[in-house]
Amino acid sequence: MKFATAAISLFASAAAVYAAALARREVGSGTHFDVAVGYTACGTLHSNDQFLVAASAPLYDSTAIDGNPNNNQICGRQISISGPAGGPVIATVVDRCPVCAQNDMDMTPSLFQAVVGDLGIGRAEISWNWV
Question: For residue 81, what are the CA distances in angstroms to 12, 27, 44, 116, 127?
């Protein structure tokens, strides 16, 4: 009986920690970029109508596994992102933003319009978390 109680208690604690990790939202600036100009840092080609982001250089570089940026563990990871115009929206990391601060995300025009608004805004506060 003590084992069952301990196991249930351990499971409940682990579930609470996992839920807290999932709920953590980062806050940063959202900007937009043209992903269709060529290959991304992840080594892929895309169009601007997809919901994609370039992660900040500090974030992107922290997940490198070898010298090849195409093999970065962050490539293909998804985030849930929100801004003043809407969200949450699911987006995929496909590139590296060399001028972004730690929690900033550079977005494709379609994603920027969905979560921030008109492209003329240029920059706005966003929040995001890993999916």
Answer: 28, 10, 22, 10, 6
Report the chain's C-alpha Rg in angstroms: 18
3-state DSSP assignment of residue 97: strand
Q: How crowded is the C-beta side of 75, counted as CA atoms within 13 Å?
A: 17
- Ordered by where they begin, the domains of the chain are 26-130 (2.40.40.10)
If you ran DSSP here, which 8-state letter would residue 69 be given? G
Residue 130 pairs with which residues in a beta bridge? 79
- Residue-wise pLDDT tens digits, 69-83: 889 999 999 999 999
Residue appearing with tokens 């290959």: 39
User: Which of the four pLDDT bands, split at 50, 70 and 90, describes residue 18?
Assistant: very low
Q: What average pLDDT does range 51-73 have in this prediction?
A: 95
Torsion of CA 70, 119, 110, 64, to 10 degrees: 20
Rounded percentage of the chain residues whose pLDDT exceeds 70: 82
pTM: 0.82
Q: Which two tokens stand for residue 110?
A: 């379609």
